[in-house]
Amino acid sequence: GAGVSQSPRYKVAKRGQDVALRCDPISGHVSLFWYQQALGQGPEFLTYFQNEAQLDKSGLPSDRFFAERPEGSVSTLKIQRTQQEDSAVYLCASSLVEAGAGYGYTFGSGTRLTVV
Amino acid sequence: KQEVTQIPAALSVPEGENLVLNCSFTDSAIYNLQWFRQDPGKGLTSLLLIQSSQREQTSGRLNASLDKSSGRSTLYIAASQPGDSATYLCAVGPDNYGQNFVFGPGTRLSVLP
C-alpha cells in the first residue's frame, strides 16, 4: 500500500484481556518497528524486525508482550493479560532497508489502547 | 545510551512569527536525524531527514540544521501559521546497523491566530 496501515485504530480492553494489534508496512520495506507512546511523551522503542527476523526485542516491557512478523510483511503485536499501565498509543513504522542504514522511517497512525 | 532532549517543552506564539525548536542528543555517533510532526491523536508525519554528512535541509517554510559534533539540531519555522500547531519530535538515527531511532519528548507548538 501507499503507507503504513495499523488496525484497529482504537481498542478498549478490560484489565486481564489479551489484545492483538496489526501493522501492514509499506510493501517491500525490509525493516519494521514497534514503538509505544505514553500520553505526553515521545515514542519509545519496543522491537525491531528485519524481514521475518526479530533482531531486537530489548524494548518490550515484560514477557506479556509478544511480536511476530512470520512472512516478513504484516506484523502483530500481542499483549497478554493487559494492565492499566499498558494504555498508550502503539505506533508501527517501516523502512526501506535495514535499520541504521541511513533511511528514514514512515509511521502509521497508531493504535490507541485503553485498558479499563 | 543515547538520550534526546527537546527545548522548549511547549511554545505559544502569535501567527506570523518565526520560531526555533531545539533538539539535543548525548551521543554524536549518529547516522542521521529526522524531524516529525504529530497532530493530536494521530501518527507521526516526517518533515525532514538530515544525514550526518549534511548541515541542513529545507522544505518550504521549514529549515532543519544539524551540528553533529555539538549534539544539536534546530528546526526553524518561518512565518508560522495556525495550521502549524502540533507536537514536533526529533529522532536520532544510529550509526550502527540494526539499531533504532531514539526520540525526544517533543515540543508542543501552538500558533495563535
Describe this structure in words.
The complex is a heterodimer of chains A (116) and B (113). With 116 residues, chain A is mainly β. Chain A is 0% helix and 47% strand. The mean pLDDT of chain A is 92. With 113 residues, chain B is an all-beta fold. Chain B is 0% helix and 58% strand. Chain B has no helices and eleven strands. Chain B has strands spanning 4-7, 10-14, 19-25, 30-38, 44-51, 56-59, 62-67, 72-77, 86-94, 102-103, 107-112. In chain B, a hairpin with a 2-residue loop joins β6 and β7 (62-67). Chain B is globular and about 45 Å long. Classes of the chains: A mainly beta (116), B mainly beta (113).
Order of helices and strands of chain B: EEEEEEEEEEE
Largest sheet of chain A: 7 strands, mixed
Specify which chain pair forms the largest interface.
A-B, 29 and 29 residues
How many helices of chain B in DSSP terms?
0
Report the C-alpha radius of gyration of chain B, rounded. 14 Å
Helix content of chain A: under 10%
Number of distinct beta strands of chain A: 11
Q: Order of helices and strands of chain A, N to C? A: EEEEEEEEEEE
Query: How much strand content do the residues of chain B show?
Result: over 45%
The share of residues in helices of chain B is under 10%
Q: Give the helix/strand class of chain A.
A: mainly beta
Oligomer: heterodimer
Shape of chain B: globular
What is the averaged pLDDT score of chain A? 92
**Count of DSSP-assigned helices of chain A:** 0
